[in-house]
Specification:
Length: 153
């Protein structure tokens, strides 16, 4: 057979191709451009003990989760999180250097008005990129739709 390829990318382009394919699948590039979608990618949505995998899309006024086909067979449904109902979102643990005391995977926690928090775990270590992508439209939404936020600034 031959030896295993070096996965640091020094001998050939195969690892870079695999990385590119994985990134394209993770971010939904196979879907092509979608109107109004600022960011999309594979995530796991956790609500208590139940976790669902699928595709998360970021719009100017909301986040939408679409379960993957297997999860749909298991009765998962689409979920939409309007920025009107998101009180705040946080990174858990608070910084990339910290380790969760209970051994949880790093996640984004959405605190929703009148509902239990929802944990979002993006695939491929993209948590901080998701947090940065959500911050700008969420801040804009709050400034334009909540007068007390605009008055504070």
């Amino acid at each position: 057979m031959g030896r295993w390829p070096d996965w640091d990318g020094t001998d050939d382009d195969e690892p870079a191709d695999w990385d590119r394919i994985w990134t394209g699948l993770r971010d939904g590039e196979f879907l092509g451009p979608e109107d109004g979608v600022r960011k999309r990618g594979l995530v796991s949505i956790n609500t208590g003990w139940l976790a669902r995998g699928g595709l998360l899309r970021l719009y100017a006024d909301r986040l939408e989760f679409e379960p993957n086909p297997l999860e749909r067979l298991l009765a998962a449904r689409r979920r939409s999180f309007s920025f009107a109902e998101v009180e705040r979102f946080e990174r858990r643990p608070a910084s990339p250097d910290e380790v969760s005391p209970v051994g949880q995977t790093p996640r984004m926690r959405l605190h929703l008005t009148g509902r239990k928090p929802v944990d979002v775990i993006p695939a491929g270590g993209t948590l901080d990129a998701w947090l940065a992508a959500i911050r700008q439209p969420w801040d804009w939404y709050r400034r334009t739709h909540e007068p007390e936020v605009a008055a504070e600034e």
